[in-house]
Amino acid sequence: MLKRWMPPVLLGSGLIAFFAFDLDRFLSLEALAEHRGWLLAHVHAYPLLAPVIYIMLYIAVVAFSLPGGTVMTLAGGFLFGALAGG
Q1: Nearest Cα to 37, choosing from 76, 82, 78, 81?
Q2: What b-and-e string marks burial along 65-79, b requiring 16 or more CB atoms within 10 Å of the CB?
Q3: What is the spatial distance between Cα 26 and Cα 7, in angstroms, rounded to a whole number?
Q4: DSSP helix/strand/coil, 40
Q5: CA-to-CA dists, residue 83 to 18, 64, 76, 78, angstroms
Q6: pTM for this entry
Q7: Residue 31 contacts by C-beta under 8 Å, 6 or more apart in sequence?
Q8: Which of helix, strand or coil describes residue 46?
């Protein structure tokens, strides 16, 4: 019984936490433009870790159907280039 209810409970909890902690402010084009320098500096400082973290965040945004999937896709191309970001 627990296996059956675990996925919807996790998805619901993640969605509630996302809006409760006001994390949607980070998934906008304005936030991407505002934090451009900081993001690019970290991508260059951590060339192996940055893509892994990006992929994990992208998976979470898509899995929870959060608003901002388009922004995450654009951010991937912006941060890692068109080929690697795609």
Answers
A1: 78
A2: ebebeebbeebbebb
A3: 25
A4: helix
A5: 30, 26, 10, 10
A6: 0.75
A7: 25, 71
A8: coil
